Amino acid sequence: MDAKVKHRVLVVEANDKLRQRLEGVLVSQGLEVTCEITAAAALERLANAEPLFYTLIISSYQMLEMKGDEILKTAGEIAPDTMRMLIADASDFETMVNAVNIAEVHACFLLPVNETDFIVQVNQCCDQFEKARELESLKKKIRRQNRQMFEMAEELKKKDEFYRKKIKQIKKQIRIQKTAQKNKENNREKKEDRSDLVSLETLLSKNGIRFTAENLKAEFQSMADKLKKVLTGVLENSSGTMEDLDLPLVLKDGSIDKAFCEPAVHLLSLFFMFWDDQKKMVSQEGEAGTRLEDMLELTLSDNRTKALVRIKTYNPDIITVDSIKEFLEDQEIRFGLADDKLISAWLADPIRQDSAFVIAEGKSPKLPKNAEISYYFPTDYLKAGKVNKDGSIDFKERGDVPFVEKGTLLASKLPAEEGVSGRDVYGMEIFVPKAADLLFSSGTGTVMSEDKFKIYAANDGQPHLDAMGVVSVFPDLNINGDVGFETGNIKYNGNIVVQGIVKEGFSVKGATLTASQIEGADIELTGDLNVSAGIIDAHLIKVQGSVQAKYVNNSKIEAFGDLIVQKEIIDSVVLLSGACINSQGRILSSTITARKGVDAGQIGTDTSQPVKIKVGVEDHINSLMAQVKERLDRNPKAMEKLRADISDLEAEDKEVNVKITEQAHIQDRTQLELQGVKEKLSDLNGSGNVKAIQKLTKAVEKMKRVIKQAEKSINLCFSRQDAIAEKISEKKKKIRAVEQYNKALVYNKKWLREFSGRVGVKAELKVNKRVMPGTQIQGPNASMIIKEPVSRCFINEVEKYSEDDPGIPFYEMVTSFL
CB within 8 A of 360, min separation 6: which ones? Predict the structure, then answer.
């Protein structure tokens, strides 16, 4: 081990002789050792350690409050970086094997203690701790580099998108300019080829007619009609004359100029050519680029992975492979385009032209498959027990309690399958949602399979699934009397059965709790709470399962499951994700919030404070989510402070390093000067020059003092650097601890969301006897206050629609009678 590192070891051992022997062996190896005789004290010291992490925690398996494997499992949750060693008797060898899976211990040691082997394992744990620290530092560096590379990639991606849009815009401008230039050239050619149109404009203007296509057509049509009439009359020897035409193209003798027919025909042809060109020019100038859109119909599939084109009006001069591709480019369809040969074959086949043609086809996405979990034991089991005549509950008669043997399959998980993104015909990626995974956790008394998809019972006991999704198998802890000064606080990862009372000022933490009565105690359970008598003056009862009691008085209860009370609920605050069931009792001066509704007997009296009831709301989950959010919001500030401290320490380390350099320079320079003075002093020896010898001797002593002082300063600087390095390491450990804590909070937040999605909502209140005036009833969207006494009724929130605006719903609390 590195002599510079002072490793700290925490020993948890109730046996005095063994604890003292282990301490002596560890101290002899230069380790800093702390010993505790109880699990609670050891875990509290580990949680509040300064610096935060111990290098190693060693626990004996045979402990009173918690077994050694459970101690080490909890220690791993508090301080994941701390190495864990379990010491047990040879008879507990099988238990030690299970502990490797449950507590993830790093070393196991069998009694009796062999000091040499023990020291080897301790040293290995210390070395592993150091390597883990170095590995974490390397991982952090890699993560930082990966983040920098990701940021660079994102920046390049943004630039690529920007330039792609710019190129597209420029291409579009080029196409527009080419079209405009082509139109100008066509117009110029028409004007050059038909200069005689000026004479037409002059002719019309002389007659006071504005030169337009419509006027020109009308004049030519009139001239043509008159010409036809005259020519017809001449051919039929009629009396029609050329004067009737009133045209400038008539001879003086009234006969027809023979040359008139050719110019007339020419002018008529010229006009109709002009008329057609005008329509084409209008089409080109006013509707440029829309002709294909008029002739083609483009449709897309719902996910835009397929583009189909249908011909509405076929013009082979316009609809070609190139024009269709240009049309698609204008529509920004560029991925998965059909081959030119296929498009040509489609255009050449009159039959196929009548049907839609797949002009582009992208890549369809593959949808994800969410995870599924199956449980092979009753997960909603509730120890109902037998209700006595006085309303108390006899939990000795509670029916068939689920029981499993070691090795029983408790749960299995079908893993989620991620989807595959697709690509649409625009070339854009079609993202698929991430497959919803389900947290699958193995708790006390269980073991996870190697593939992490099955959970088995590690011992005989009662199977249990808590609200956070942890599967456990619990043995029972029986306490014959009360929970008080004789027992102290109880923390047991299993079912706790208290024959007496849980007294005021004490706490019980565990899986499930069955007790005679709760008096002013704090209770925190991952399972159910069953009280045969009542709950009185309890500051806070937090239960992930359900609560059963004869009565509840002046207490606060938070539960994920149901609250089942036989008699009364008085002066209490109840916050539930389940239902409040008090069918034959009464609720007085209390606030009840139940996501799955309330089933009550009597609510309120003439003299009591009004009862407040909220049903169908998420207040319980929202309250827990808010607590998680508050912690998550608070932790970054703590981490920011730690990082700032590290920056200050690193700056100080640089200053100390400069000082070391300066003192080392002074030391080296003085050493050289001292060497020169010593040589001079050696030359003077025997010369009899006492005064010069004395002067040089004093100079030597002074230089030695300077060198010694520089060396002392350097050593102090080195010590300060070691202290700085240790403080930086401590603060980095705290940062990692906060990060681990944040991960646990995020894990908890995800479970709350999953739980919220599994539990139904009922915005309803059932009153089996009477509800008194003043009672406030609130649902998710509506509320009401009872004005008059109402008996045997059912009150729930109903969605309604207004006749004036049937598209917008409104909500109302509606009362019906049982």
Answer: 306, 307, 328, 333, 335, 336, 337, 338, 425
Give the chain's length. Answer: 818
* Tokens coding 452: 């992490």
Q: What is the pLDDT of residue 576?
A: 92
DSSP-derived letter for residue 506 is -
| Range in 212-221, 367-376, 438-447 with the lowest mean pLDDT | 212-221
Provide the pLDDT for residue 268.
52
Q: What are φ and ψ of residue 394, in 5° steps?
A: -95, 100
CA angle 682, 684, 687 (to 5 degrees): 135
Closest-CA residue to 7 (of 87, 82, 68): 82
Cα 300 to chain centroid distance, Å, stands at 33
Reduced 3-state DSSP string for 516-567: EEEECCEEEECCCEEECCEEECCCCEEECCCEEECEEECCEEEECCCEEECC
Q: Over 307-372, what HEC string results?
A: EEEEECCCCCCCCCHHHHHHHHHHCCCCCCECCHHHHHHHHHCHHHHCCCEEEEECECCECCECCE
Q: Is the peptide bond before 51 cis (omega within 30 degrees of 0)?
A: yes
Cα distances (angstroms) measured from residue 167 to each of 296, 323, 349, 396, 743: 27, 21, 36, 81, 45
Percent of the chain with pLDDT over 90: 15
Peptide bond into 112 cis (omega under 30): yes
Q: Give the per-residue SS3 of 593-613.
A: EECCCEEEEEECCCCCCCCEE
Contact 110, 88 (CB under 8 A): yes
Cα Dmax for the chain:
169
Identify the sign of the CA torsion 811, 812, 817, 818. positive
Phi, psi of 795 (to 5 degrees): -115, 125
Q: 């509506």: which residue's tokens?
A: 782
Least confident span in 2-16, 169-183, 427-441: 169-183
Question: 651 burial class (0-12, 13-18, 19+ CB within 10 angstroms)?
Answer: exposed
Lookup result for tokens 């009737």? 244
Mean pLDDT, rounded, for 138-150: 69
541-590 pLDDT per residue, tens: 899 888 999 999 999 999 988 999 989 999 999 999 889 999 989 999 99
Is residue 130 packed enough to be buried (19+ CB in 10 Å), middle (13-18) or exposed (0-12)?
middle
**Is the CB of residue 111 less than 8 Å from the CB of residue 89?**
yes
For the chain, give percent helix, strand, coil, nearest 5: 45, 25, 30
Nearest to 300 by CA among 252, 342, 360: 360
Quote the pLDDT of residue 660.
85
Average pLDDT over residues 485-497: 83
Q: Which structure tokens are listed for 292? A: 């294909």
- Rounded Cα distance between 103 and 70, Å, is 7
Tokens 């981490």 sit on residue:
639
Report the C-alpha gap between 17 and 112 in whole angstroms: 12
Q: Report the distance separating Cα 336 and Cα 430, nearest Å.
A: 14
pLDDT (tens digit, 9 = 90+) per residue, 764-805?
A: 999 999 999 999 999 988 889 999 999 999 999 888 877 766
8 A C-beta contact, residue 419 and residue 367: yes
Contacts 24+ apart (CB under 8 A), 555-563: 555/518, 558/620, 558/623, 559/529, 560/467, 560/620, 560/755, 561/382, 561/467, 561/528, 562/382, 562/596, 563/594
> How far apart are alpha carbons 773 and 241 in whole angstroms?
112
Buried b (16+ CB within 10 A) or exposed e, 683-704: eeeeeeeeeebeebeebbeebe
CA dihedral 498→500→505→510, nearest 10 degrees, is 10
- How far apart are alpha carbons 64 and 8 in whole angstroms? 25
CA dist 413 and 371 (Å) reads 7
**Residues 6 or more apart from 542 whose CB is under 8 A from it?**
523, 524, 525, 558, 559
Q: What angle do CA 490, 65, 466 make, to 5 degrees?
A: 65
